[in-house]
Amino acid sequence: MTEVAFHFGAPDRLAYTCRLLRKATATGARLLVRSRPGDSAALDAALWNLSPTDFITHCDGTAAEAVRSRSQVLLVDERAALDSSFPVLVNLADDVPEGFAQFQRVIEVVSTDEQDRSLARQRWKHYTERGYAITRHDLKARGEGA
């Protein structure tokens, strides 16, 4: 069954997502990041602005298959089809992605914004109603939400 984790309390979702991606790709993970329209471009820019020693191979969903197969991170907006060849799905969109169960793991990143938190509660409910156990990471309690 797909593992689901919520990371709550990110004051800057994009900055936190960059750190999350840097940590995950250092272990060899491949991740698909699904976001609201426009956020993929912002995340792409943020990833290019990491230090040269922190470079993360990434591309967007329109890249050629040869590029996608060599990238650790695939950036797509919420309207794009999901590519399950990336075993981890990072969801930055407002809804639960259709087909999320084809991934080994789903990570939901939630900011401190009240609307974002409210939408996250709906996603949480969706997963629990379907029997998924959820791992909760409170970034504020860990000192990462400050």
What is the fold's blueprint, element by element?
Elements: E1 3-10, H1 13-26, E2 31-35, H2 39-48, E3 58-60, H3 65-70, E4 73-77, E5 88-91, E6 105-111, H4 114-129, E7 134-138
Order of helices and strands: EHEHEHEEEHE
Q: What oligomeric arrangement do these chains adopt?
A: single chain
CATH level 1 name: Alpha Beta
Strand content: 25-35%
Provide the CATH architecture. 3-Layer(aba) Sandwich
Which superfamily, in CATH terms, is the homologous superfamily? DNA polymerase III subunit chi
Relative helix content: 25-40%
Through-space gap between termini: 33 Å
> What's the overall average pLDDT, rounded?
94
Q: How many E-type strands?
A: 7
The residue ranges in which pLDDT falls below 50 over 5 or more consecutive positions are: none
Shape: globular
Number of H/I helices: 4
Spatially, the strands of the biggest sheet line up as 3-4-2-5-6-1-7
CATH fold title: Rossmann fold
What does this structure look like?
By secondary structure, the protein is α/β, with parallel strands linked by helices. It has a single domain (about 5-140), classed as DNA polymerase III subunit chi (Rossmann fold, 3-Layer(aba) Sandwich). It is about 30% helix and about 25% strand. It is built from 4 helices and 7 strands; from the N terminus they run βαβαβαβββαβ. It has helices spanning about 15-25, 40-50, 65-70, 115-130; strands at about 5-10, 30-35, 60, 75, 90, 105-110, 135-140. A 7-stranded parallel beta sheet has the order 3-4-2-5-6-1-7, with helices on both faces. Strand 3, helix 3 (about 65-70) and strand 4 (about 75) form a beta-alpha-beta unit. Helix 1 crosses helix 2 (about 40-50). The longest helix is centred in the C-terminal third of the chain and has 16 residues, at about 115-130. The mean pLDDT is about 95.
